[in-house]
Amino acid sequence: MDVVSDAIAAVRIGRPSSNRVRVSGRWCTRFAPYEGAGFHVVLEGCCWLLPDDGGPPVSLGPGDAVLLPHGTGHVIADSPADAAAVARAVPFELRPAGTLPGPAAAAAPGEVEMLCGKYRLDRSRVHPLMLELPKVVHLPNRVGLHPELRAAISLLGGELGGEPRPGACMAVPSLLDLLLVYMIRSWMAEGPGGVWSAVLGDPVAAAALRALHSDPAAPWTNDRLAAEAGVSRPTLARRFTALVGRPPMAYLTWWRLTYAATLLRDTPDPLAAIARRVGYGTPYAFSHAFSREFGTTPGRYRDAVAKAW
Questions:
Q1: Could you tell me how many helices (H) and strands (E) the chain has, helices first?
Q2: Which of 26, 99, 165, 240 is the most buried (most CB within 10 A)?
Q3: How many C-beta atoms surround the C-beta of residue 253 within 10 A?
C-alpha cells in the first residue's frame, strides 16, 4: 500500500455514518466533539460552519466539502451566528425530523440540503500525516478542481436521496471511504506546503517510503533502501531524516509496530502470523519490540482494543 492509504487504514475503524438533511428558515445546529472525523457536503444552498475553538467562520456554498479530521466540535448555521445564538444551537441528534428529498427533488429558495457524516478513528496510534491535517479542511467547489471528489459527492448524494437502492448497504460505506481519501488527497494537492506534502513530493524520501510500506516485512537495511531509492546511503539518511523527522530504520520499526497494532485490532490472525507480516522472525521478538513501544504485550493490547471498540 502507499503511505496515504496506510495512514488512513491505521486509524479507520468500524463503519462510517451519514445523513442527507434539508433545513430552511433560521436554524443553528450543534455537532459535539467526536473521537473521530466529521464531514459536511453542501448540495444546495449556503450555510456557515463555526468551530468551537474560536476559529474563523467558514462560508459553505453548493458543492463545498469540509472535513474536521480531529473531531472538533462546531456549529452549522444559516448565518455567522453570534455567541448567544451559538449557545442556543440545537444538538444535531435532537433536530426535528424532516422530510428527506427524493432524487428528483430540488431545494426551494432559502433551503439548504447537506450530507453530514462522521468516521470512527482510533487515535491511539496516528500516522504523522494525519496529525498534520488542520482542524478544518475546507474544499470549495471550483470548476475543474478535484474531479474525483466531485464524482464521489455526486454518487453519494444519489445513494442517500429518496428510496434505498439495491446494494446501498454496501455502496454507501464504500463511497464514504472514498470520500475520505479524496478529501485528504485534495487537501494535499491544495495544502500550504505541509511537511508530509513535502515528504511525498521528494523523489528520494517518497521512493524509500513506498518501498517500506509496500513490504514492511522485508529485511531492509540502509544500503538496500538507498539502492531502492537510487541514491547513496548518506544521501538517503540525510534527506529522509530531515523530511520525515527520524532515520529510515527508526521509521521502519515504528511503522512495523503501528501496522502490527492495526492487524491486532482488525484481524483474528495469530501472533506468529502477525509477527511474520511485520518482519519479526519469532513471536517472542515481536512481543518484546511491541511491549517496548506500546507498554503492553500484543495479546493484552488486542484484548483491550476489543473491549474498547
A1: 13, 10
A2: 240
A3: 18
**Which secondary-structure segment (H or E) carries 14?**
strand 12-23
pLDDT digits 0-9 by tens, 82-139: 777 788 888 887 766 543 333 334 445 578 999 999 999 988 778 999 999 999 999 9
CA–CA distance, 128 with 133 (Å, rounded to integer): 9
More confidently predicted of 83 and 229:
229
| Average pLDDT for the chain | 88
Phi, psi of 279 (to 5 degrees): 95, 20
C-alpha dist (Å) from residue 231 to 247, 252, 268: 15, 18, 40
Q: What's the pLDDT at 101?
A: 39
pTM for the full predicted model:
0.86
End-to-end alpha carbon distance in the chain: 25
With CA atoms as reference, report the closest residue to 44 among 99, 113, 101, 109: 113
Burial profile 145-179: b = 16 or more Cβ within 10 angstroms, e = fewer: ebeebbebbebbbebbbeeeeeeeeebbeebbbbb
- Give me the DSSP letters along 162-229: SSPPTTHHHHHHHHHHHHHHHHHHHHHHHSS--HHHHHHHSHHHHHHHHHHHH-TTS---HHHHHHHH
Tell me the C-alpha distance between 309 and 296, whole Å: 18
**CA nearest 243: which of 191, 190, 206?**
206
Kindly state the cell numbers that stand for 45.
444552498
Angle, helices 248-266 vs 3-11, to 10°: value is 40
Mean pLDDT (whole number) for 7-27: 87
Q: Based on C-alpha coordinates, what's the Rg of the chain? A: 22
CB 139 within 8 A of CB 186: yes
